[in-house]
Amino acid sequence: MNWNEAQDHCAVLGGQLATIKSLHEQMFVYELLNQADIGDIRVWIGASDIMAENTFVWIDGTTFSETFTYWSPGQPNNYNNQDCVDLFKVNGKWEWNDETCTYEIFSLCEFI
Ligand SMILES: [Ca+2]
Ligand SMILES: [Ca+2]
């Protein structure tokens, strides 16, 4: 599903796309995704720079400048105007990448 569909999908389930605001949360997600054993598929998380290029914002309104980040080296690169953030597996870690929002991948929901 694309990023907008991923948001709707999580909302229907009673949650929201995951936000990751600390190394602790990043490690939790890392364990979860490795246990899920989904291979190299990418997953959407709840952040984008749709509103203002290169100002990444979590879906709760928190900006990346206020919080922890875990970008993959060389990201975000805005390649072909990428505005939505996904996780992809690099060197066994799930690092952040800006991705084309219409890309069809999995969604990572959280339930508070
Ligand atoms: Ca962008
Ligand atoms: Ca990118």
Description:
The protein has 112 residues and is of the alpha+beta class. The protein has a single domain (3-98, 105-110), classed as Roll (Mannose-Binding Protein A, Chain A). The protein contains two helices and seven strands; from the N terminus they run H-E-H-E-E-E-E-E-E. The chain has helices spanning 3-12, 23-36, and strands at residues 16-17, 43-48, 57-58, 84-90, 93-99, 106-107, 109-110. Strands 2, 3, 4, 5 and 6 form a five-stranded mixed beta sheet that branches. Strands 1-7 form a two-stranded antiparallel ribbon. The chain is globular. The chain starts with a helix and ends with a strand. The relative contact order is 0.28. The mean pLDDT is 95. Bound molecules: calcium ion (2 copies).
Order of helices and strands: HEHEEEEEE
**Gap from first CA to last CA:** 22 Å
The largest β sheet comes out as: 5 strands, mixed
- CATH secondary-structure class: Alpha Beta
Overall 3D shape: globular
Give average pLDDT, whole number.
Answer: 95
Question: How is the CATH topology named?
Answer: Mannose-Binding Protein A, Chain A
Ions, cofactors and other ligands present here are: calcium ion
The total of beta strands comes to: 7
Number of domains: 1
Q: Count helical runs.
A: 2
Overall radius of gyration? 13 Å
* Proportion in helices: 10-25%
**Any idea what the CATH architecture is?**
Roll
What are the main properties of this structure?
single chain; 112 residues; alpha+beta; Mannose-Binding Protein A, Chain A; five-stranded mixed sheet; two-stranded antiparallel sheet; 2 helices; binds calcium ion
